[in-house]
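Model it.
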Amino acid sequence: METNQTKNIRLFHTNDIHSHFETWPTIVGLLKSKRELARINGESTLTFDIGDFVDRFHPISEATLGKGNVSLLNEAGYNAITIGNNEGITLSKEELLKLYENANFDVLIGNLSISEEHSQSISKPYQIYEVDGMKLGVIGLTVAYPVFYEALGWCISEPFKTLNEILPIVREKSDVVMILSHLGMKEDQRIAEQFSGIDIILGAHTHHLFPNGEYVGGTLLCGTGKHGKYLGEVLITVNQETKTVINVDASVIEVHKVPRYYQDEMTKRSLMKLMRLSEEILSEPVAILSDHLNVNWFKDSPLPTLLAEALKKWTNSEVSMINSGILLDGLTKGIVNKGHVHRICPHPINPCIVYLSGDELLDVINRGEEKELVHLKMKGFGFRGKVIGRMVYGGITIRNRHKKTHFFKEDIYINGVMLDLNRIYEVGTLDLFTFGHLLPTIRDSANKRYFMPEFIRDVLLWALKSM
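Modeled.
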């Protein structure tokens, strides 16, 4: 509550929208309504997004390479954003350099500079916002995946090292210190434990939800889940004379429960216009099929076989393996355009090569045949499908595959030659398998090579054009 000496500052925040625009008109309507109410009450506001607003699973993000997302943030009146891994490593360097060139908001990233040599940077490590005589220092940090960033030509710094360098500068200049952190909940907790003088961390990346915030020491951690299901709000009450924070309250609004009349009509029109533009861009023909190419997630089918063979050729590897669930549907006879391919293969998943011994490859093949994995329903690591599905191979033949549940080297033939347990094989596959628990042998392999910025659908497009 305000007095003559106190003032309220309201922060609004979103994170990990991932181009799920279903709730976006309601979020914008809420923002406009809440800002107007704050203005009437003499309160100042700032609005932030904490990354992964862009996700190329959506036609708008794919066709416009994220620029449609930026126009939506512009119209919604955001003050600043940081980037997530979906902005940072699912676009080429050139595309990321162009992404924010028309942004009306600050792009804050302390551990990555979006700039070309001899040109002005599009991003900055922090920004000081002067609000009602109070100085709010806001630092942006994004999760570091050095292997991927370096493959794209970027140099990304370790976030804690960056924060150690930037924080004293920002503290010196600010009355309130905040971080826009696309690092994940555990990293935010570590920051709060290890660094003093941080008032608020607006979090992202791990899709965590803190309905009323969570304090670690003197730092308030916030997060709004994912996909625009919640809008976050932080109310800061400050003493204007002493320039100190008296109180901080965090809350979220469950967007799906907000009445439909809050939906912003201009935003709905913008989304419709962007969708029409995207459909036009993605209507570019890529092939004419003389027959249907079907997909079955649990049996042999032609389109996954085509993709596995194409991946082997495209990566110039000895063998290849993909999961049939990477393809959400088949392609029908006739003209195939970019939109069709994007619809059936929307994942931001890159091709890669992993080097495995014959013994390790045998372990991977046996793991891939397990029913638990084949029928696994999964989201994450770039996978936007429903189930992992049956493994499909290029250059690998499995004898009696339909009769056995476990295989030995005598059952496996590599380009017509029996598997050699001691040989090293070059396996073209998906970066999906280099994370998590799906295929631990691939995940733990020390020798991998990632192809970037190409997605697996680019390999499919290449294969279809070559038919």
